[in-house]
Amino acid sequence: MYQEGKIFLGKAGEEKVFIYPKMANRHGLIAGATGTGKTVTLKVLAESFSDCGVPVFFADVKGDLAAMCNIGSANENLQKRIDALGLASEGFEYRSYPTCFWDVYGEYGMPLRTTISEMGPLLLSRIMDLNETQADILSLVFKIADDENLLLIDTKDLRSMLQYVSENAAQYSAQYGNIAKQSVAAITRSLVALEAEGGELFFGEPALDIKDWIRTDNTGKGVIQVLDCRKLIQNPTMYATFLLWMMSELFETLPEAGDLDKPRMIFFFDEAHLLFEDAPKSLKSKIEQVVKLIRSKGVGIYFVTQKPSDVPDGVLSQLGNKVQHALRAYTPAEQKAVKAAAQSYRENPAFDTYNTLLELGIGEALVSVLDESGVPTMVQRCTILPPQSQMGALDDTIRQREIQNNPLYVRYAESVDRDSAYEFLSRHAMQTAEAKVAEKEAQAQAKAAEKEAQARAKATKRAVSSVASTAAGTIGREIGNALGKSVGGSFGKKLGGNLGASLGRGLLKTFLK
After folding, report:
1. Distance from C-alpha of 396 to C-alpha of 411, rounded to nearest angstrom
2. DSSP run (H or E) holding 226
3. Lowest CB count within 10 Å: 344, 416, 494, 501, which one?
4. Which of 175-184, 459-468, 493-502 is predicted with the least confidence, judged by mean pLDDT?
5. What is d(CA 442, CA 444) in angstroms, rounded to the nearest whole number?
6. In the predicted model, what is the mean pLDDT of residues 484-504?
7. Residues 6 or more apart from 179 whose CB is under 8 A from it?
8. What are the DSSP E strand ranges found in 289-388?
């Protein structure tokens, strides 16, 4: 509940426990074993921030958060908690909240997309599980695309770019370094696998404008953005990488805000351990950097997970508002983890933190927040308020109605495939093929023309030879007859004929040289 300008989270006995809005962007942690009440805590905080006028985002991993668009209703368990906390006199009432639904696959929400370029080679390498060499080559491919002004929007753009770079590896190696075709082929195989897992839908346009999430409804309530992750969570790496991209996008997009009276936006990342599992050191460093710096953008990030140890120490140390539900300790390793969690709180002399963590009931939690001066409060054993919106799953008919009635539906419902690397390289390949065909045709025509010219020259030579032969014979005979007459008799005629023929052949040979 939003009360007295503060986030009313629960009660420690008769004492109210609040989160101060101006300290809410110091981030937070909601932790606890399965079934201890983390989902209810998340809902109560999301509703309170919305009432405060702060937009909210959370990933709905189990499908039990979407019903916030419906007014809650009483049941026996909720009524018991309302009575125990004395909420009837506190203005507690069931209500609905402005909610937008999103889904990478476009099934249970408006399609949520980003582009290959916006995701970048570092996060893509993690999604596709590339080794260090392959990741370096993918970065080179992005660099080549940038240098040649080729847009990488969807997966077919990247696939075309990989093929183009592979075919021209020798040309690019001198400028960008060695590009092994085997590594490019391995990246392409990983990309095809990513497409099969939904990457073909996730990468495209219109890409999400993160500013569309930072808004309130006409009553001043912050709009709650719900990303349906029931299918996405089946690919944990893609789920985690999407959340990382979102943090990076927020950090790069939003201007500096300094200290605000309340956050611009609050993000809840469920199954937060997936962000850090198998992540390379460079990626963990990036997450830690973003968590440290995004506070100045007016954004608060709350990690929801089972154990505090799921979150690296460098990130955990940045989380000022902590709600710790019960932990279970059946093994020495689990006991050690509980002890570490207990030691992270400012001790309360009224109870033993370690033992209390083990005996907390459903809906109870140890809570420590930052006071108005930014100092962590003493840990308190707190009973969390019940949510005001509907508990449980949302009927699909109502969900679809909410999706289609959303003003953003017109903008994001239909995909757009504009001219980018795939189209450019397809045209380039077609033009290259046409040029090769034209060149071959021109060479064939040139050879045919040359052959025809040679044939004409031979024909002309034969014709000239025939004419010259006839003319030479006639001239030779005339000369021979003249000589024969001068000698006289039959011998003269014979001599004249032979001499004339020989003379004719000589003349012909000389003429044809």
Report:
1. 22
2. strand 224-228
3. 416
4. 493-502
5. 5
6. 54
7. 137, 140, 165, 166, 169, 172, 173
8. 299-305, 321-324, 364-368, 380-384
